[in-house]
Amino acid sequence: MVNFDYQNPTRIIFGKDTENEVGKLAAEYGKKVLLHYGGGSIKKTGLHDRVLSSLKAAGLEVVELSGVKPNPRLSLVREGIEICREQQIDLILAVGGGSVIDSAKAIGVGADYDGDVWDFYTGKAEPQGSTLVATILTIPAAGSESSQGSVITNEDGGLKRPCNSLYMYPVFSILNPELAFTLPEYQIACGTADILAHLIERYFTNVKNVELTDRLLEGAMRNILHHAPRLLHDSKNYDTWAEVMWTGTVAHNNMLDTGRIGDWGSHDIEHELSGMFDIAHGAGLAIIIPAWMKYVHQHDVHRFVQFATMVLSAEMDFNEPEKTAMEGIYRLEAHFKRMGMATRLSEVNILEDAYEAMADKGTDGDTRTIGNFMKLDKTALVEIFRLAE
Fold it and tell me: What residues make up the domain containing 378?
């Protein structure tokens, strides 16, 4: 186990009708709120009206900025930064899923910076402060409601890049599982794939003697594998959504990182898919993760055997451990298929002529490697794309 320094300052308010408390909670941080959200879904469900009523009942002035898209765009972030500066916003309230929350975080750190916010996503600068951010989660998936990360897409070049900073933790996040009842099946599948991916990225580590977090990660993965298919048959089951929503938060609040170094290669690879082709992040991960596993599993067959037996209930073959490792990968792939997800690039119309460009962008022209479990260069990325075709 490696040394670690763990903190998570985000306050979680979990349960039924908790969105109605947002005005009282937000009033602790100022008088002027930027309400940030996506399209019309929160208006159709009545959530927009409830949030607005709560904020105004608490005496808060509200400015609105809608229009967040999946793979949130840098152009809208820049628009939000200008609003924060001109309107002297005290708190940015993100109402939505990971895309809305990531956009809000980018606006927050950008409003506190004299340069271009994209500097943070290219590593040219680090945030030194932020307009405060709070969230009301509607799509369990990204875990951004209590993480220090944000991912933004720059339309100029189709570049999708992450930024991590302690200044990006929301001050509070409201989690009401009822708000996910109206999600369509495809969003359920993508969201639960994203949660599972966050756990997998942490699970595959070269650090030894991390048995506590191994067991916690295995339990969380089994929880998603058990509950995700249930939502396709009963999307209004509060108890099932509560399990999925809380697992999604715990999967990405850094508690399960403690003492270990995760991989994150699959996420970096997927960013090239969604950056260039604008597919859903979870959809891309369902394609890339099994292919990544097939490419790297021989690096540590024992860990893949552990994954197969402890998470996917594969039977141990003591004579051929690689057979057990591969069985785990096939079972994971089968889970994604049961959820209605594509598991091949060709199924989402990403063809071989794009592999080289994606691999080049993912490794900055083959000048860097990605991933920690096994370092991957441009050639490795192309091979993973071929395994996924």
Answer: 184-387
In a domain, 159, yes or no: yes
Each residue's pLDDT tens digit, 15-36: 999 999 999 999 999 999 999 9
Do 30 and 90 fall within a single domain?
A: yes
pLDDT tens per residue across span 240-275: 999 999 999 999 999 999 999 999 999 999 999 999
pTM value surpassing 0.70: yes
Residue 268 lies in a domain: yes
Q: In whole angstroms, what is the distance from residue 125 CA to residue 116 CA?
A: 10
Same domain, 198 and 111: no
* Pair 244, 153 in one domain: no
Triad 156, 161, 165: Cα angle to 5°: 130
CATH number at residue 41: 3.40.50.1970
